[in-house]
């Protein structure tokens, strides 16, 4: 088996996608920030001392998607042409979903995952003063479309 991110000597390298044709691609990721019941109540009623947690996290997630290549050494700089980050307060915490779209030479799975995790970090940062137990859980890619490998959906997410 050969790995695309390793050269013949086994050294890490960035895959050259110069010859690939741009195609429309998308990826969706999900994650969760578990918080105490009192924190979930404060998120629902808008009484978190630092302000509008969900609005800040949404913007942080979008910014994270756009900065992905600066964080991951072998990620390509691609055009993030669309990024939607949705957050929903649930009884046990905050559910986060991000969908990122592009028309480029490589996929946006890492951008979607970065959007979710940066949004989650932002939630933790905004509530940590009132809830030291806040924890990021289950960040994962749940679907992708486009590119040579086509569409894919995580099994447990499709039902």
Automatic annotation (TrEMBL):
GO molecular function, one term: cyclic pyranopterin monophosphate synthase activity
UniProt KW Lyase keyword: yes
Catalytic residue list: 125
Amino-acid positions noted as binding substrate in the UniProt annotation, renumbered to this chain: 74-76, 110-111
Gene3D superfamilies: Molybdopterin cofactor biosynthesis C (MoaC) domain
Pathway per the UniProt entry: Cofactor biosynthesis; molybdopterin biosynthesis
EC number: 4.6.1.17
Molybdopterin cofactor biosynthesis C (MoaC) domain span: 14-147
InterPro entries in the cross-refs: MoaC, MoaC_bact/euk, MoaC_sf, MoCo_biosynth_MoaA/MoaC, Mopterin_CF_biosynth-C_dom
Classification via Pfam families: MoaC
Catalysis: reaction(s): (8S)-3',8-cyclo-7,8-dihydroguanosine 5'-triphosphate = cyclic pyranopterin phosphate + diphosphate
Keywords: Lyase, Molybdenum cofactor biosynthesis
Gene Ontology biological process terms from the UniProt entry: Mo-molybdopterin cofactor biosynthetic process
Keyword Lyase among UniProt keywords: yes
Organism domain of life: Bacteria
Protein task: Catalyzes the conversion of (8S)-3',8-cyclo-7,8-dihydroguanosine 5'-triphosphate to cyclic pyranopterin monophosphate (cPMP).
Family named by the database record: Belongs to the MoaC family.
Quaternary structure note: Homohexamer; trimer of dimers.
Record-given protein name: Cyclic pyranopterin monophosphate synthase
Gene name tied to this protein: moaC
